[in-house]
Amino acid sequence: MKPLLELVDVHRTYRIGESTVNALCGVSLTIERGEFIAIMGSSGSGKSSLLHILGLLDNPDKGEYRILGNNVNTLSEDEQAGLRNNVAGFVFQQFHLLKRMTIVDNVRLPHIYSGLKGDFRHEAIERLKLVGLEKRMDHTPNQLSGGEQQRVAIARALIRDPLLIFADEPTGNLDTKNSGDIMKILKGLHDEGKTIIMVTHEPEIAAWASRVITMRDGVILADERKAGLDPSVETAQEIEFETHLAGNGALWRDGRFTGFMAQAVQSILANKMRSFLSVLGILVGVASVIAMMALGEGAKAAMQEDLKSMGSNMLSVRGGSAKIRGAAQGAGAVARFTFKDVEDIARLRSLVKNASGVVNGGGRIVYGNKNWSSTVTGAGYEYGTMRAVMPTVGRWFTPEEIQRREKSAIIGVTVVKELFGSSNPLGRTIKINRINFKVIGIAPAKGFSGPQDEDDVVIIPVTTAMYRVLGREYLSGIFVEVTESGKIDQAKIAITELIRKKRRLKDDDDSFNIRDMTEIQKMLSSTTQTMSLLLGSIAAISLLVGGIGIMNIMLVSVTERTREIGLRKAIGARKSDIMMQFLVESVGMTISGGFIGVVTGIGISIILSTFAGWAVKTSLISVVLATAFSALTGIFFGLWPARKAAELKPVEALRYE
Ligand code: ADP
Ligand code: MG
């Protein structure tokens, strides 16, 4: 039968900067099944280094370590972790219990990494009974004495029924009475056939063992077996090395992942204030993304509503060049339009739904002792529906009124406010440029379009405006409503040809221009688009800052829990397990921040719309986007700290102060 453990000329050297420490200088050793070994020697003689190598917590620089004849130093880190979980139990001088967990949870902890099904509570209680602590199973380590904590650690070492128990100064922190208790338990385990390897520098403790190895300066000085305490080779069961190498469970299998979730929740709750503060960053980020995007979308929707009120599919035909508008008012360069032109355009039946001539001018409006300057628009009959200015109070002109050049006026709400205050203007007589007009309607409120108050208007029949008020012979322009939006360009071309033909104008003539409202619409919506993009990116930056906050906290958490990571690795956690544990934690934080942020963001939007009257529109897209982004933030910013934790070597992590 091959020996259980075998070291052949093992060396271990530590390098700190320039200097090197030779902790083990050529150690050869054979350990049989059922032995109880005490490794003795003064401080710094290499006892712990030897134990770490035997326990697969560390690997030799030179030499070979065989378990059951298999070289284990060539195994991957994860395979070694699996082997530790399956065949070894560890007891440390500092106990290394996880403070946040109850005793029973501490004892069953190795099972998270075993890949076996079940909650193992019952098994944990069994082991606690063995060390006489079943009554304390729901306590936390802080509520236990040192001796009791070490007994819990032994129970934990036994949970996987290991072949080997490694104990590094198990009684180093305990008084004589408690030391005696611990040794009795270890002796009992040895009697049951367990192989025990224990480091100690106290002869009284070493006296419990059946074999004492003495070290000095990295080499074995003496190796004595005590007579009458022979290894119980016969009682040891035959073991298959390969079965212990088997992978210890996939991540998603057997509740391994839910185990990580539970631990993440536990760890987040253990540092409530700190977790809350780092979650706050994500919360603010997500809430502002939602609120800002709602604002942007709201502005866009309101703008579109406004554009609709300008009338859809509209063309405006005006005299003068489109290129040098304003400066092109020179004589001869400006086309003039008459009612005949309106008729001709309206006759383009397949393209034009409606056409209406307009004149614009200024006017002094007087009512009683109040007067007010406003724009006067002379409008044709169709203008009311085309430009959506049909009065909601009162009525629009009749065709006869327009024909008879009647003195009827429809006024905007700004004019109403300035001249009439809160009294009813309908049926009253106002003066427009000293001529009496009867108010027959109030134009629907439109608000501002840019700097222009769309409600500061007086609308009168186009004929009245031309011949009675403004004294014009020609129209200022013609509004054309195209039958459908797809025909706008076609209509533009047709109208241009019509006007040129009638006037015998050359092709490059620019004495008139046709403007397209959809151009204005496009321009305005691209402006709002830019605005929501800007708002969105500001919010995204705050989300980024929140993410960095999470990373910071995760890094602190990794550093703070280095020894915990060391312990987890010692009891069989693989790299991916540690990594996943920290990732789940950081993603958990960002996602919960994301959810509260979504709710807060929607709340802010509602408050803005109800109390400040702002147009807001929360979109599902922004909610989904923000939540997904917060999860990604968790992964992205959790990855580095999680990797950092996963890369730690078990021994180094355990030694961390
Ligand atoms: P013992 O357990 O017998 O007190 P160790 O095995 O812990 O001794 O240490 C043996 C020697 O190696 C000591 O001189 C110690 O300072 C050194 N040593 C141990 N671990 C490290 C390390 N991680 N880095 C540098 N030196 C170390
Ligand atoms: Mg030591």
Mean pLDDT equals: 86
| Fraction of residues in β-strands | 15-25%
- CATH architecture level-2 label of the largest domain: 3-Layer(aba) Sandwich
Q: How large is the count of helical segments? A: 21
Question: Major sheet: size, sense and barrel closure?
Answer: 6 strands, mixed
Top CATH class of the largest domain: Alpha Beta
Q: Can you tell me the CATH superfamily of the largest domain?
A: P-loop containing nucleotide triphosphate hydrolases
Number of strands: 22
Question: Unreliable segments (pLDDT under 50, ≥5 consecutive)?
Answer: 324-331
**Which secondary-structure class do the elements indicate?**
alpha+beta
Ligands (ions, cofactors included): adenosine-5'-diphosphate, magnesium ion
Measured between the Cα atoms of the first and last residue, the distance is: 42 Å
**If you compute it from the alpha carbons, what radius of gyration comes out, rounded to the nearest whole angstrom?**
44 Å
Strand order of the largest sheet: 6-7-8-3-9-10
- CATH topology-level name of the largest domain: Rossmann fold
Supply the number of structural domains.
3
Cα shape: rod-shaped
The amount of helix comes to: 40-55%
